[in-house]
Amino acid sequence: xEITIAQSTxxxxxxxxxxxxxxxxxxxxxxIGRTISRRLAAEGYAVVVADIDQAAxxxxxxSLPQIDGADHRGFAGDLxxxxxxxxxxxxxxxxxxxxxxxxxxxxxxKRNGRKIPFFELAxxxxxxxxxxxxxxxxxxxxxxFRYMPTDGSASIVNLLSITAKLGTGGPSDASFGPFLPSSxxxxxxxxxxxxxxxxxxxxxxxxxxxxxxxxxxxxxxxxMGDVPVDERLLGQVPMRRFAKPExxxxxxxxxISDKAxxxxxxxxxxxxxxxxC
Length: 277
Prior knowledge:
The protein is of the alpha/beta class. The protein has helices at 31-42, 54-62, 82-95, 123-144, 163-166, 184-203, 231-234, 245-255; strands spanning 21-26, 46-51, 73-76, 97-103, 155-159, 210-216, 267-270.
């Protein structure tokens, strides 16, 4: 499909005439993103599933329930490129008014399922984590807000992490917690995204667009699939289990709903009782 890239002009601020509600989910073919996409489709949104892999994005979009003939679409591209995000926003706006944006894209590099010590992180690994986890969400918000309604119904949700508050702990053989397999690059990126979430909530308040974050602890996804689960990990969680992706999707559904109409700029912790402050 040929994509026409919308230009960043005053004209781009005009609202689409269609009443169709559209949602963009980045990382939408991943474990959490796919579940969020499914939940939004069940809520009646036309979902644009954005991912790095076209086949995966198309397959995820095709699997979504179609409520009232919703036109779900897959979109593939490198979201660390601002031009790709401009194209993504334009494609979503063709489907309908962009009411919801969920930035679920994220990477957490490990080695054989274990934490990479800070002194072994290559420049390329650090830069890639920052680009995917911070720059990509920023670029998309910067483009998509132009197509979002200003009647109070629009909402942006960024996927944060417990590491944004806790940090990522000591070396793999440390005797103290927190015990987390993520690198310092991941923790720093999620802390930056949490601050970006708060800052954007202030900048977009005048347009009545709410911006919130969800900060999970451990979630049972393919990203965690190669991480050895031991007593040190689960022993930190009072509920003694990983979250289900559906529980993260439930939180997204709440934050974009009218029930959360006076909530903006927050980080909602979903971690089974794990202390974060």
